[in-house]
Design goal:
The protein has 481 residues and is an all-alpha fold. It contains 21 helices and 2 strands. The longest helix is centred in the middle third of the chain and has 32 residues. The chain is globular and about 65 Å long.
C-alpha cells in the first residue's frame, strides 16, 4: 500500500489545480462578477505554478496504487494543456464583457476542465481514465451553453451533453466488457492479459472504448457534434474545445492503445487507420461549402485530427513522437485562427462569423490579415510555415511503418484541404471589403495574436529542435515504462 502523502506529492500539478479552482470559486462567490479579470489572471498564475510542479516529477512514477502515472509523456501534454487553458481564459475577457456574459464562473470552469484533462493524460487505469474524462466533460457541457440567454449557445450545450452522455455510456460499457473478460482495469496488467489471443469480448470492449475516445477527439464517424457545437458555443469556448481537450484526448488515446492494449495492435491499428482516413477526407471535403468561419474551423479540426492519427496508426516510437509534435504545433495554430475570429467585429460592434466578413481584410485590417495568412498557410501545411513539419513527421512515420497507402491518402487530402484555406486568403487579399471591421479592442489579445503568429511563421522553426526532442523523449518514456 503506497503512502497517501507520497501519492499526493507525485500528483502535485492536479493538487495545485484542484486547490486553485476552489480558491477562485470562493473568491468569485464573495466578490461577484466584478472579480472576473482578477480571477482570470489569478488562474494564469495557478497554471504557471502547476507547470512548475511538473519539474519535480521523477520519470515514470506511479501513485494511488497504480491509478495515476507521472512520466515525461504526461508532463509534455500537461504543459500544452495548461498553456492552452491559460491563453483561452485570457482571450475571452473582452468577448465576455461585450456580450454581457462576464460571469466569474468562466475561468473556474476552464480550470476544472484542465484538471480533468491533466488526470486523463496521467491515467494508468480504465477507472481513473473515466473519472478524468467525466470531470473534463462536465465542465465542457456548461461552457458550451455559457451564453444562457442565446438559443444557439443553449442548443450547442444540449447537443454536446446528449451526444457526450451517449459516448460516455459507450466507453463505460467497453470498460465493463474488458474487465469482465480480463479481470483487471490496470493498464500494465491489461498489457499482459491481452498479449495472448484475446477473447472476442475483449476485442468488442476495445472497440467500444475506442468509439468513446474518438468522440472526444472528433474523429469520424463520431464527429457529428463538432460543427454545430463550435458554431453555437461562444467563440472563446470554441477555441478552448479545439485546443486543450484535443491534446488531452489524443494523449489518452495513445496511452490506451500503445500501453493498455499494446498486445492487440493488429486489432486497433485497423480501426485507427480507418478513423484517420475518414477524418482526413471528411474534414477536407466538408469544409469546402461552409459559410461560417467557426464551422470551417471545426472541419479543419477534424481534418487535423485525422493527420495526427496517422502517427498513432504507425504504432511506433517515431509515430508517437510525431503525434506529440503535431499536437504541440496544432494548438497554437488553432488558437491563433480563433483569435482572428474573435478580432472580427462589425461597425455595430457585433461579432462577425461569415466568410464574406473576411473580404478585403487586407485593406481594412492589414495586420490581422497577415496573421490570418500565416495561420491558414500553416494549417494547410505549406512550407516554410511551421505547420508543414508536423505533417511531414507523421507522413514519415507512416512510410517508416510501410503504411504507404495511408501516407498517400494523407498527402492527397492535404492538397484538397489547402483549397479552402487558400480561399480564405483570396477573400482577404483579392476581394473588395463589404463592410467595416473595427480595430482590435484588447492590447493583450493583440499581443497574443502577434506572438502566436510569429511562432507559426518560419521564425518558429528555431523552436523546432527543442520541441521535437521533448516529443521524442515523451514517446520513449511512455513506451519503455
Amino acid at each position: 500500500m503506497q503512502p497517501i502523502a507520497e501519492s499526493i506529492g507525485i500528483a502535485a500539478p492536479e493538487l495545485v489545480l484542484a486547490t486553485g479552482a476552489m480558491v477562485l470559486l470562493m473568491l468569485g462567490v464573495f466578490r461577484g462578477n466584478r472579480s472576473l479579470h482578477g480571477l482570470t489572471y489569478g488562474g494564469v498564475i495557478i497554471y504557471a505554478i502547476a507547470g512548475f510542479a511538473l519539474l519535480g516529477d521523477a520519470q515514470s512514477e506511479l501513485a494511488f496504487d497504480g491509478l495515476y502515472i507521472a512520466d515525461d509523456f504526461s508532463a509534455y501534454l500537461k504543459v500544452l494543456i495548461f498553456a492552452a487553458a491559460a491563453i483561452c481564459s485570457i482571450i475571452a475577457l473582452p468577448y465576455l464583457v461585450r456580450a454581457r456574459s462576464d460571469k466569474f464562473e468562466y475561468p473556474v470552469l476552464i480550470m476544472l476542465g484542465a484538471l480533468g484533462m491533466s488526470m486523463m493524460v496521467s491515467a494508468n487505469d480504465l477507472l481513473s481514465l473515466y473519472i478524468g474524462l467525466e470531470l473534463q466533460s462536465l465542465a465542457a457541457y456548461v461552457l458550451a451553453a455559457f451564453h444562457r440567454n442565446e438559443a444557439s449557445s443553449s442548443e450547442a450545450g444540449l447537443k454536446y451533453f446528449v451526444l457526450g452522455a451517449l459516448a460516455s455510456g459507450i466507453l463505460l460499457y467497453g470498460v465493463s466488457l474488458v474487465y469482465g473478460f480480463t479481470g483487471t482495469t490496470d493498464f500494465r496488467l491489461l498489457q499482459v492479459a491481452v498479449t495472448e489471443t484475446p477473447a472476442v469480448g475483449t476485442v468488442i470492449g476495445l472497440v467500444f472504448i475506442l468509439a468513446g475516445l474518438a468522440f472526444k477527439v472528433s474523429a469520424v464517424p463520431f464527429h457529428m457534434w463538432t460543427p454545430d457545437v463550435y458554431q453555437g458555443a461562444p467563440t472563446p469556448v470554441a477555441a478552448f474545445f479545439a485546443s486543450a481537450p484535443k491534446a488531452a484526448a489524443m494523449g489518452l488515446l495513445v496511452r490506451v492503445c500503445m500501453d493498455a492494449f499494446g498486445g492487440m495492435m493488429s486489432e486497433w491499428q485497423q480501426i485507427i487507420a480507418f478513423m484517420a482516413i475518414a477524418s482526413m477526407v471528411l474534414g477536407a471535403v466538408g469544409a469546402i461549402g461552409q459559410r461560417s468561419i467557426k464551422r470551417l474551423l471545426a472541419y479543419s479540426s477534424i481534418n487535423n485530427i485525422g493527420f495526427a492519427l496517422i502517427g498513432l496508426a504507425a504504432a511506433s516510437e517515431l509515430g508517437i513522437s510525431g503525434v506529440l509534435f503535431y499536437m504541440a504545433i496544432y494548438l497554437p495554430m488553432t488558437i491563433g485562427a480563433f483569435l482572428v475570429v474573435l478580432s472580427l467585429r462589425g461597425a455595430d460592434g457585433r461579432p462577425l462569423d461569415t466568410m464574406n466578413s473576411l473580404k478585403g481584410l487586407s485593406k481594412t485590417r492589414p495586420g490581422l490579415a497577415i496573421a490570418l495568412l500565416i495561420f491558414m498557410f500553416s494549417l494547410a501545411g505549406i512550407p516554410p510555415l511551421f505547420g508543414f513539419w508536423p505533417k511531414f513527421a507523421v507522413f514519415n512515420a507512416a512510410i517508416d511503418a510501410e503504411m504507404y497507402v495511408l501516407a498517400v491518402i494523407g498527402v492527397v487530402t492535404s492538397v484538397v484541404g489547402a483549397f479552402y484555406y487558400l480561399r480564405i486568403i483570396k477573400l482577404a487579399y483579392f476581394d473588395e471589403p463589404e463592410g467595416t471591421v473595427l480595430p482590435q479592442e484588447s492590447r493583450v489579445n493583440g499581443a497574443l495574436l502577434a506572438g502566436i503568429a510569429v511562432f507559426c511563421s518560419p521564425l518558429g522553426l528555431f523552436l523546432m529542435g527543442p520541441i521535437t526532442v521533448a516529443a521524442a523523449r515523451a514517446a520513449r518514456a511512455m513506451l519503455t515504462f
